[in-house]
């Protein structure tokens, strides 16, 4: 099983994901836009048990479209978003792809919340697209 390491911008928060084939979703929801400061976030979804993280993390308590709580964890030193826990998917770690040291293995296969996609965003062909959250 491959180990993928990553960190925040300042390097005080580090993480490891041990997963050969996580699901990678581009999320166009407005909360991802605001919390990432970008047009969309690239989310790597893996079983929670395969993700370990340490560092000076803080969380923002958000609410997902399901109406259930989301915890958006970020480095308290530099503000980099690291990962999200969703009560709607308690066994899943949603890791921000941008923090990985080597992102060459990351292959998005779906896009979600396309309803709020920024119109200029160029995206690869062949991804499964959902207006909101897939059921
Ligand atoms: Zn940091
Ligand atoms: Zn999102």
TrEMBL record:
<feature type="domain" description="CENP-V/GFA">
    <location>
        <begin position="4"/>
        <end position="106"/>
    </location>
</feature>
<protein>
    <submittedName>
        <fullName>GFA family protein</fullName>
    </submittedName>
</protein>
<keyword id="KW-0479">Metal-binding</keyword>
<dbReference type="InterPro" id="IPR011057">
    <property type="entry name" value="Mss4-like_sf"/>
</dbReference>
<dbReference type="InterPro" id="IPR006913">
    <property type="entry name" value="CENP-V/GFA"/>
</dbReference>
<keyword id="KW-0862">Zinc</keyword>
<comment type="similarity">
    <text>Belongs to the Gfa family.</text>
</comment>
<dbReference type="Pfam" id="PF04828">
    <property type="entry name" value="GFA"/>
</dbReference>
<keyword id="KW-0456">Lyase</keyword>
């Amino acid at each position: 099983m491959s180990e993928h390491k990553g960190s925040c911008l300042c390097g005080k928060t580090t993480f490891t994901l041990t997963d050969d084939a996580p699901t990678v979703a581009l999320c166009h929801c407005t909360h991802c836009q605001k919390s990432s400061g970008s047009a969309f976030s690239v989310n790597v979804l893996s079983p929670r048990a395969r993700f370990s993280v340490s560092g000076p993390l803080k969380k923002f308590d958000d609410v997902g479209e399901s109406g259930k709580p989301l915890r958006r964890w970020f480095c308290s030193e530099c503000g980099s978003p690291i990962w999200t826990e969703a009560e709607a998917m308690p066994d899943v770690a949603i890791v921000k792809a941008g923090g990985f040291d080597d992102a060459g293995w990351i292959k998005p296969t779906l896009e979600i919340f396309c309803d709020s996609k920024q119109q200029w965003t160029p995206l690869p062909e062949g991804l499964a697209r959902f207006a909101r959250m897939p059921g």
